Amino acid sequence: MLKRIQVNGFRSLMGFSVGVRPGVNILLGPNGSGKSNIVMFLAFVSAVFERRSASKAVSDFGGAGRIFSRTGKRNPVMRIDAEFIGEGVIHTYKMKGGGVSSKYRYEYRFAINFSKEIQTVYFENQEFKFAFCGTPQNSRGRNNSDWDFHIREFASIVGKKIEFNHEIQKMNIDMLGSSTSIILYAENEKKKNIERAISQIIQSTHQPNAPILYAASLCFPKFNGVISDLSQNKVLNIVPEIAKNSDDSATPPEIEVNGKGLAATLYALELEKNDMGIQSNIEENASLSNFEKYGRPHNYRIADAFDMIEESLKSISDNIISIQPEIDHLKNEITIYVKLKMNGGKVKFPLSHLSDGTVKWLALVTSIYTNRSIIAIEEPENYIHPLMQRKILDLIRNNLRAAGNNGKPRGSMFLTTHSETLLNSADPSEIVLVSMTNSGATRTRRIKRMKDIRDAANEDGFGLGHLYLSGVLDYV
Ligand SMILES: Nc1ncnc2c1ncn2[C@@H]1O[C@H](COP(=O)(O)OP(=O)(O)OP(=O)(O)O)[C@@H](O)[C@H]1O
Ligand SMILES: [Mg+2]
Predict the structure, then answer these.
(1) What domain count does the chain have?
(2) Full-prediction pTM beyond 0.85?
(3) Which ligand is nearest the CA of 378, by number?
(4) Is residue 324 part of a domain?
(5) Given the CA of residue 27, which atom of ligand 1 is nearest to it?
(6) Is 454 among the domain residues?
(7) Which of 413, 291, 418, 421 is nearest to 39 (CA)?
(8) What is the pLDDT of residues 90-125, one digit of tens each?
(9) Given Cys at both, which of 188, 212, 300, 423 links 465, Cβ 3.0 to 4.6 Å?
């Protein structure tokens, strides 16, 4: 899980740092303070990973002009420096049963640069460090410089070409347990030769301009948890007009960040509930891999998801009876119908005839339950009735709280909001106050006098939203 992010050079994120807490992290601040830039940065890094290319990700996000910070200087440096600090737990299962859990921590750093000489965006340098640090209960008591793996990469422009070179500074094979193929390959070899082989494998499998973690994880699959923290991070921003649409029956059951694919997802979930034997089919597509996203486990069975979503929809209004996904084989279309009580009878409406708020709520709930890639939700309150806004935080909190972790959240999620109602259900520990300095840089801070604020928010039933609007949070 990511614990801290530091960025310099991405839009308004200059000299920027934010701590990520398990559970909900609510970004709260005035218009233009940089809340969206923070979540956009996470999506950008995710694109760098998924595209395996810094330059492709920059063009996906609108080009260098939109991504690099503008400082007003004549000849600006176009360079993003970022650092990610995180930790995680790896469970190793033994053949004879049982298993061990080991805790790890990592640091990953990169500089993405735009070279004016060759008009290219590239990784100027990267550094990755990884260490095991005991079991979840007992730390190994190692000091911070004790890494089990440490690699650095440097790029240099030679003529019109970029050359990438890497240096492995540390490699503790006994701890890292390299992948089976490498063990076989080097079985009779001395440790030194294994190290050399690994270095060669990294050199030959690393795609220039891709995150170095991919080549490293080929040799050490234990790094996959780190890749998972930094990739598949999407920002949810539902557009009811899009979520309302019917889907082609071949649409994969994966709801996209704007709500597209809602019909196909609900249809697949209903089949799953009725155990129609498509499990293996569904498992192959992105929806299920999202369900199972490493480090963000869910605490319910997929077969129960449809009923949970239906229950959530019914909480909007007493008139809603059920959700009915239907497939029209002639038109090749999946449409979601909602059955409502009306004048003592029942009517069935397609989603396209329902209100924006109803559709938004359905898409929001379905996304939260099924799309494991969501790292942030932009202004979830839009279109949503205050009574339902109150439920949003509980929905997200419950979903992040994985079974078997003493009710503590396992994953993190960011929200941006302006809603007083939503804030009234928030705890001071969930708030990240965002502001902008005079020079246009985004800053964050947490509430310090947590107990005082919590007491004040509870007093007379005035919530945190009220305190925020009255300006109290600016001074704590
Ligand atoms: N390339 C850039 N370089 C520097 N600053 C930028 C760049 N692009 C955008 N900004 C700054 O970021 C601000 C917008 O930030 P952002 O959209 O994250 O605000 P927000 O907090 O989400 O606001 P809202 O509450 O209105 O959604 C702009 O006003 C501008 O000051
Ligand atoms: Mg915004």
Answers:
(1) 1
(2) yes
(3) 2
(4) yes
(5) 21
(6) no
(7) 413
(8) 877 767 777 788 899 999 999 999 998 899 999 999
(9) 423
